[in-house]
TrEMBL record:
A Pfam family recorded for this sequence: RLMG_N
Transferase is among the record's keywords: yes
InterPro entries: DNA_methylase_N6_adenine_CS, RlmG_N, RsmC/RlmG, SAM-dependent_MTases_sf, Small_mtfrase_dom
Keyword annotations from UniProtKB, A to Z: Cytoplasm, Methyltransferase, rRNA processing, Transferase
Organism superkingdom: Bacteria
Name the record gives this protein: Uncharacterized protein
Keyword rRNA processing on entry: yes
GO process annotations (BP): methylation; rRNA processing
Length: 374
């Protein structure tokens, strides 16, 4: 397969941001015999970035491949790449890991950066896949650790390691401990009570900060009391675990909040956070690329702590995309309140994309600004 044909769109594209890499190729090479021998409909792919693994599996002979990707942008990139290669009918995108891996004999996984995401995914695979499943999980060595072997070893009796190639490596897991795995899978999302905020925070594996409140978000929350006090609605953009939306809804009884994120795990976490705090009737969590579900010029108050990673790569492209989404969705005079790492110097971009921007607060690491939509 010609991996150079793959594209990241509709995700951010740019220098150093690739749609496939050496880890994808190694996973497929190590799994080639398994894929060729797998019966129809028994191959699953989890957290494929932009379709390299699913399309590579089809190219290797797999049929009716099932896929689950956490990011909606990744799922759409897979669909576009599959259509461009004439393989759209061979791959099914499914809404959950459990759905994708049910009775699977071969599961390909792109290793996540966080152990908590790997633990949840591995538990779901071990609980729902076939008893003879082989899990083939790979990544770049710089993002792997020995602890990943231990996580897989909790849910599988046998874990093997491939030779390294082009700074990548693959882990193989076999003989799932289904009963233990099912019990552990049911323990997600994890919850934690934040005494300072008086909120219970819930999070699935892989969500930024987990069930904790990161320092940037905490700084933002400390200054939100005076933000658009008369707003009837608010948007928690790139909501993560949903603590910002929950805090706004709890402090303003008349407010309804839309929480959006491109991550399925984040949206499920935000929904669970709202439910844990008795706010489910006023916080609506929706998976979306930015504010694509929101009409132009309709919102009056958007709150954002923008991510600055695209997969493992540092990128400000996601933040700029979210600024543009907020600018489009805000009505004239509406405001985007944003917290950002001060060294990123987003103020000029906010002025250009959204409108006049004032500094609300600053500490040695973070800046909070409010931008008024033109």
């Amino acid at each position: 397969m010609d991996f150079s044909l793959l594209r990241r769109a509709p995700d951010v594209e740019g220098p150093g941001l690739v749609a496939a890499d050496a880890a994808d190729r190694l996973i497929l090479d190590e799994a080639a015999d398994l894929l060729a021998a797998a019966p129809d409909g028994t191959v699953a792919v989890i957290d494929d970035a932009y379709g390299a693994l699913a399309l590579g599996a089809v190219d290797a002979g797999a049929t009716d491949v099932r896929s689950h990707q956490d990011l909606i942008t990744g799922e759409r990139a897979l669909q576009r790449n599959a259509e461009a290669m004439g393989a759209g009918a061979d791959i099914r995108s499914l809404p959950s890991v459990a759905d994708a891996v049910a009775d699977a004999r071969v599961v390909l996984v792109r290793l996540p950066r966080g152990l908590d995401r790997l633990a949840e995914v591995a538990a779901l695979i071990a609980a729902h896949a076939d008893a003879d499943v082989t899990l083939v999980a790979g990544g770049r060595i710089k993002h792997m650790s020995v602890a990943m072997n231990d996580v897989l070893g909790e849910f599988f009796d046998r874990v093997d390691v491939s030779h390294a190639r082009q700074k990548s490596r693959v882990l193989f897991a076999r003989r799932p401990r289904a009963r233990l795995a099912d019990e552990r899978a049911r323990s997600w999302p994890q919850t934690r009570r934040d005494g300072d905020l008086g909120l219970t925070v819930a999070a699935h594996g892989g969500v930024f900060a987990g069930a904790r409140v990161d320092v940037g978000t905490r700084f933002l929350l400390s200054v939100l009391d005076g933000a658009r006090p008369d707003a009837a609605t608010a948007v928690d953009l790139a909501c993560g675990n949903g603590v910002v939306g929950a805090a706004l809804a709890r402090s303003r009884p008349g407010l309804t909040v839309l929480a959006t994120d491109r991550s399925a795990a984040a949206v499920a976490s935000a929904r669970a956070t709202a439910e844990a705090n008795g706010l489910a009737d006023r916080v609506l969590a929706v998976q979306a690329d930015g504010l694509e579900t929101t009409p132009d010029g309709t919102e009056e108050f958007v709150v954002l702590n923008p991510p600055f990673h695209s997969d493992a790569a540092l990128s400000t492209g996601i933040a700029h995309h979210l600024f543009a989404e907020a600018a489009r969705a805000l009505r004239s005079g509406g405001e985007l309140w944003c917290v950002w790492n001060s060294h990123l110097r987003y103020r000029r971009s906010l002025e250009r994309i959204v409108g006049p921007t004032r500094q609300i607060a600053r500490n040695p690491k973070f800046t909070v600004t409010a931008s008024v939509a033109r």
